[in-house]
Amino acid sequence: MERKILPSIAYPAVGTILLLMIPLIAMQFTNEVAWTLSDFVIAGTLLFGTGLTYTLVTRTSGEMMYRIAIGFALFTGLFLVWVNMAVGIIGSENNDINLLYFLVIFTGICGGFISKFKPQGMMLTMFAMAVMQAVIAVIALTIGMADATGSSIFEIITVNGFFITLFVVAASLFRYTGQARGKS
């Protein structure tokens, strides 16, 4: 058992270290990149957690399309969190409404476990995440966040539309995988 767990941890760990070397090296040559220790810890946790999740969820599947669907879904979730924490989706990263986007991620985590990461359930989970993303955008526009945050209506619709599209693409990948499997 130890042999199977070690590679599951080793690959994401090495990948995380290699990716974190990019800002570390960049900091040596420019003042434009100024990461703090907490930036490295948070980024490392997000990267390692995403890589480990991918490894654990896909370890028993030899299906390439399922692996692509899981990878795409995880990347989209990681990208949403990263952008939200770095600059914010609506206004700056310090705007309280941006906390709602963690509900999108929570929906994905709960949906994954409830569906046991089966393609049909993951497809529904990705659609639920897209709907949750759209609801947050509608709430923000309804309560006037475009005026209050410095984000224009166009920016709010465009950025949220981008993430909605990524979640719908992920759902489509899971749908395709489910059809190829015979809807497991």
Number of domains: 2
Derived from helix and strand composition plus strand pairing, the structural class reads mainly alpha
Q: Secondary-structure element order, as H and E?
A: HHHHHHH
Main sheet record: none
Radius of gyration: 18 Å
Low-confidence stretches: none
Helix % is over 70%
Overall 3D form: flat
Q: What separation lies between the terminal Cα atoms?
A: 27 Å
Provide mean pLDDT, rounded. Answer: 91
- Counting DSSP H or I runs of 4 or more residues, the number of helices is 7
Share of residues in strands: under 5%
Number of strands: 0
Describe the model.
It is a single chain. The chain is mainly alpha-helical and 184 residues long. It has two domains: 1-60; 63-184. It has seven helices and no strands.
